[in-house]
Amino acid sequence: MNKNEEYTVTIEDIGSEGEGIGHIDGITCFVKDTVVKDEVKVKIIKVKKNYVYGRLMEIITPSPYRVEAVCPKAKSCGGCTFMHMSYERQLEYKKNKVISCLERIGGIKDAGSLVEDIYGMDEPYNYRNKMQFPVGVDKDGNIKIGFYAGRTHSIIDIDECATGHKINTFIIKNLRAWISEAYKKDKQFVYNEELHKGLVRHIVTRVGFSTGELSVCLVINGEKLSRDKALDDRLRSELISALCDAVREYNEGLSRDDSEIKLSNVSININKEKTNKILGDKNITIYGENYITDYIGDVRFNVSPQSFFQVNPMQTKVLYDKALSYADLTGNEVVWDMYCGIGTISLFLAQKAKKVYGVEIVPQAIDDAKKNALLNNLSNTEFYCGKAEELAPKLYKNEGIKPDVIVVDPPRKGCDIALLDTIDNMSPKRLVYVSCDPATLARDIKYLSEKGFEVKKVAVVDQFCHSVHVESCVLLERVSN
Ligand code: SAH
Fold first, then answer.
1. How far apart are CA 370 and CA 445, in angstroms?
2. For atom 19 of ligand 1, which residue has the closest CA?
3. Chain mean pLDDT for the chain
4. With CB atoms 3.0 to 4.6 Å apart as the test, which of 45, 78, 85, 239 could cross-link to 150 if both were Cys?
5. Helix, strand or coil for residue 471?
6. How sure is the predictor about 45, in pLDDT bands with cuts at 50, 70 and 90?
7. What is the arithmetic mean of pLDDT over 410-421?
8. Residue 363 Cβ < 6 Å to ligand 1
């Protein structure tokens, strides 16, 4: 098989990155933007020893699972891999992905029988509370605000995003006009990633879905909007007024089901590093408070621009309710919440536990966690800053803190072995593992099952509709030593 040749392929499966998989003369062929049962014409773009990559040229017979993508930019934008697949089918894919990881990597037989259900959204659009838009300039000098194309850093310009809160449409429109004006006067106003020159890099927005509080952060490669004090002041007030206008325009067109937005926080974030990390360490509030408030269930959270907060508030409630029901608390338990962030799960659990200890590596998140505990009068919590794998053994050995229930919610790379060993030594009654990557989840489960733990129940919650990402919550119990 050679490059540039064309073939007809029927898609039989979807891979872990969302790519369609078919066969040509027995050779595996990966095709982006396809759905199981699509019959497609592909052009071969890469030939490897045991497989090839094909570019989708034409859909000959569309799959019954194929739908028209709601967003016209879905194909080029790196955000939504599955917008051309029916939502029911997306959920099925995600559930199967978890089952297959648990069986293949975790060594669990018939994992499907342990999976309770996949919890999807009734309305899987406009669910994200946080958006991060890179800003750039195209070759004709037009301002681009949008998302990176899949696997690259070229910016796909967008006017609206079907997964974000609708206020973002107004923010993009008004900030595009403001940035375009400033760019006309100063060609250094917009960041050029390749040259690591220019100023405005990203727009980061966050909305408290239950409070309507909006935070907007402009990330710049510099200390100020201009070295000239008068111009810096003017640009700041123009930015604030463009955002106030965006909020007013949004509120004026509000339908009866939506709630009003209020601008609560505008900040400038300084990021002068040549890095993929979006936010720098320094954040200067130029309008309002330096945080927004939101609720998950009855628990209130203050969230500062730099803190991690779950992006899908509706589904987070579903996920945390699951974690809480798996923890099965009666009020007498000591609970550890490892990788606790701003204490979201900890405070949720603290409502039903005797004591909750949270551990998290980011100091600012721990500050937020402590403040959030006070805010909710949950005095049965204590938060420690450090690596879970280092602090857990210390809390256990030096302080003699022995948990009845442990909750872990690690980043994608999963838990450190030292933490899993400490969990094993402490033998909690129950371990609740919340995971955003089923492959590392399954790897850690395999390790724990060799130590005598057994998976009892699994729930899959769709937090990231239209993307390949999947969140799950697993209950483990020790069955032997
Ligand atoms: N449970 C929280 C946060 C989960 S995200 C919530 O639901 O909101 C994972 C968290 O783990 C992040 O806050 C990250 O900063 C933290 N983290 C990453 N590595 C860590 C480590 N080695 N030890 C402790 N926390 C870590």
1. 31
2. 361
3. 95
4. 78
5. strand
6. very high
7. 96
8. no
Half-sphere exposure of 248 (CA within 13 A, CB side): 7
CA 259 to centroid of ligand 1, rounded, Å? 31
Neighbouring C-alpha atoms within 13 Å toward the C-beta of 51: 9
Q: Which atom of ligand 1 is nearest to the CA of 346?
A: 1
From-to residues of CATH 2.40.50.1070 in the chain: 130-296
Q: How many other CB atoms sit within 10 Å of the CB of residue 104?
A: 12
CB-side neighbour CA atoms (13 Å) of 28? 11
How far, in Å, is the centroid of ligand 1 from the Cα of 416?
12
Amino acid at the residue 462:
D
Separation of 463 CA from ligand 1 center, angstroms? 17
Could you tell me whether strands 115-119 and 130-137 are parallel, antiparallel, or unpaired per DSSP bridges? unpaired
- Which tokens belong to 252? 């004026």
For the question of whether the overall pTM of this predicted structure is more than 0.85, the answer is yes
Of residues 395 and 163, more confidently modeled:
163
CATH 3.40.50.150 domain extents, the chain: 90-122+312-478
Top-tier CATH class for 1-66: mainly beta
Q: State the pLDDT at residue 364.
A: 85
| 99-143 pLDDT per residue, tens | 999 999 999 999 999 999 899 999 999 999 999 999 999 999 999
Q: Is the CB of 341 under 6 A from ligand 1?
A: yes
Q: Whose CA is nearest to atom 12 of ligand 1?
A: 341
User: Which segments of the chain belong to CATH 2.40.50.140?
Assistant: 1-66
Distance in Å, CA 236 to ligand 1 centroid: 33
At residue 306, the pLDDT reads: 83
Classified by CATH at the fold level, domain 90-122+312-478 comes out as Rossmann fold (3.40.50)
| Residue of 360, 366, 367 best suited for mutating to test ligand 1, as the one with most atoms within 8 Å of CB | 360
Going from the Cα of 203 to the center of ligand 1, the distance in angstroms, rounded, reads 24
244 flagged as catalytic:
no
Q: Which of 217, 415, 436, 473 is catalytic?
A: 436
345-369 tens-digit pLDDT: 999 999 999 999 999 998 888 999 9
The pair of three-digit structure tokens given for residue 237, joined into one six-digit string: 């007030």
Q: Does the beta carbon of 294 sit less than 6 angstroms from any atom of ligand 1? A: no
Tell me what pLDDT residue 152 has: 86
